[in-house]
Amino acid sequence: MIDIQGVSKWYGAFQVLNDCALSVRRGEVLVICGPSGSGKSTLLKTVNGLEAFQQGAVTVDGVRLDDPRVDLTRLRSRVGMVFQHFELFPHLTVMQNLTLAQVKVLGRSQAEAQARGLIYLERVGLIDHRDKRPAQLSGGQQQRVAIARALCMDPVVMLFDEPTSSLDPEMVAEVLDVMAGLAADGMTMICVTHEMGFARRVADRVVFMDEGRILDDAPAKVFFAEGGVRSPRADAFLNRLL
Ligand code: ADP
Ligand code: MG
């Protein structure tokens, strides 16, 4: 579903991604972890063409991102992205947040978009909140709306960038539960997260990044195994978290 080959990126003289390669199969759940500043967000954003890079190639569902014929807006609509700060439109209701891009980008009718919106609001347990504005919801609820909004676009893959990092602790589980449900239903997912309990339970594979490089790429079972085969830096990182 996703294939990243030899991707390198520089900001001036600073190399933020160093020869990164990784692939994600359909239905696979990949967790990316690593210290702050290691390039996780930058790598994730290369997948939907939000970050340009100087070397390498990224293919999403058979489409090469550097193909000049690629319609990036269209491609992005098929890659769901959920960020740390739930970027809902504050002046729109929950339902309007869900229908806007469906109508504008996918050309669905309002009725069709709303029907789809209801399905995913039900899915994230927020059907009764459809007429509220984001500010009337808790952080966890807002993040679940952001997930529902992404799902409305029929994504082929969902990207999560620390979706629970800015939430109060009691709201983390409700968001991780929605993500685990998606994974169980076979969604292809890349999740940047420090929630190692989630990674252990839900991820098929774990990638560890440091200083722009992928140092580890292993099945979750192997990565988390007692005395598992990990890079020394991943070891140190895990020991600090646990
Ligand atoms: P992570 O998500 O792992 O915390 P990021 O991908 O956000 O890391 O950032 C990786 C590195 O790139 C950091 O050192 C950050 O300061 C640097 N960086 C990110 N964006 C820019 C930018 N626009 N210009 C210069 N440096 C940047
Ligand atoms: Mg980041």
TrEMBL record:
InterPro entries: AAA+_ATPase, ABC_ATPase_HisP-typ, ABC_transporter-like_ATP-bd, ABC_transporter-like_CS, MetN_ABC_transporter-like. It is a peripheral membrane protein. It comes from the Bacteria. Belongs to the ABC transporter superfamily. Signal peptide: none annotated. Its main location: membrane. The keyword ATP-binding applies. It is found in: Cell membrane. The keyword Membrane applies. Residues 2-236 form the ABC transporter domain. One of its GO terms (molecular function) is ATP binding. Keywords: Amino-acid transport, ATP-binding, Cell membrane, Membrane, Nucleotide-binding, Transport. CDD domains: ABC_HisP_GlnQ. Pfam families: ABC_tran (PF00005). This is Amino acid ABC transporter ATP-binding protein.
